[in-house]
Amino acid sequence: MSGVEAGEFKIVFTGPMGAGKTTAIAAISEGEPVRTEVENTDRVAHAKESTTVGFDFGRITLADGSVVRLYGTPGQVRYRFMWDILGRGAAGVIVLLDASAPGALVQLDVFVDAFIPHVAHGALVVGVGRTDVPNAPSTDAFAARLDARGIVAPVLSVDVRRQGDVMMLVRTLVCILGSHTAHGVPA
Amino acid sequence: MSKVRPAKLSRELARKVLEGYGEVAGVQCAVLFSSDGFEIASHAADAAASARLAAIGSSLAALGTALAGEAGLGDFERTTIESNGGAVTIMRVGSSRSMSLAVVAGKDAVLGQLLWATQRCCQALAKLLDP
Ligand SMILES: Nc1nc2c(ncn2[C@@H]2O[C@H](COP(=O)(O)OP(=O)(O)OP(=O)(O)O)[C@@H](O)[C@H]2O)c(=O)[nH]1
Ligand SMILES: [Mg+2]
């Protein structure tokens, strides 16, 4: 079977603060995404000016006509309740990480643990940014981390500011979903 | 430039304002929080409960802002969630988007009175923290 049947389904972008969830959805969404950015008052956690506290929402149409609803979560653990709301009913999850951020490998565990229960087995793709920064762990290190836990998921090096990179993540996830269509990916 | 969260003294004064407001019939607890979900001051809620209310309240305020903007209605002012057991109101504090107040009220609260009192409380807090 090739690809998901034409229909409508939901993909969730998650990962820690500053990983690039909002940037990724803006890079590929058809039309302006819905954003819930507010001023970031916790510059210790991350230096950026704004942060997502509700969700990001965008939409794309795939070549086969299926519509993908894209949701981006907040990154901070205090918004865990939002992770569960957004994770519910997701066909698949894309975990984004910034390899240059401290504790990036541990963050992988945090988000995989939080979202694995929401998705059918295997519907997970990991996108790692800034692997070129000196001393940042490589994509292999993230893959090994998953492997050690018996989780099989593609790990791709991405720059979330580039539409092509983000689309590659989505296509990879859609491929996985396609191979599981028999198990009832939302049509 | 970032507006940092209010200093300790202001927070203590804000807590006093909330304490007075807590006298309003039916009010169970109140939490003042930053738009990115940190508690600034609270009344009658323990640390864990006020941290959670602050996070959820900030999401609702942000979703309210997004919805009002989408509908072309301008800025978010307040939203009230009504349920069997009572109501929760989230109201913006001051003219900036930096803070909101969440108030939990029981069945015994009269919604009109509650909203009026909450508005007064928000005005007092804005005077204190958002000059
Ligand atoms: N220099 C550089 N910047 C990047 C790269 N990837 C992402 N960024 C920047 O990192 C920032 C990511 O910010 P957001 O998209 O707001 O991150 P987020 O994951 O939505 O964060 P929260 O909503 O706070 O959880 C943006 O300013 C991007 O431009 C990269 O490879 N190099
Ligand atoms: Mg974001």
TrEMBL record, chain A:
It comes from Dokdonella fugitiva. The lineage of its organism: Bacteria, Pseudomonadati, Pseudomonadota, Gammaproteobacteria, Lysobacterales. PANTHER family: ATP/GTP-BINDING PROTEIN-RELATED, GLIDING MOTILITY PROTEIN MGLA. This is Signal recognition particle receptor subunit beta. Gene3D superfamilies: P-loop containing nucleotide triphosphate hydrolases. It comes from the Bacteria. InterPro entries: Gliding_Motility_GTPase, P-loop_NTPase.
Automatic annotation (TrEMBL), chain B:
Residues 14-105 form the Roadblock/LAMTOR2 domain. It comes from the Bacteria. PANTHER family: SERINE PROTEASE INHIBITOR RV3364C. This is Putative regulator of Ras-like GTPase activity (Roadblock/LC7/MglB family). It comes from Dokdonella fugitiva. The lineage of its organism: Bacteria, Pseudomonadati, Pseudomonadota, Gammaproteobacteria, Lysobacterales.
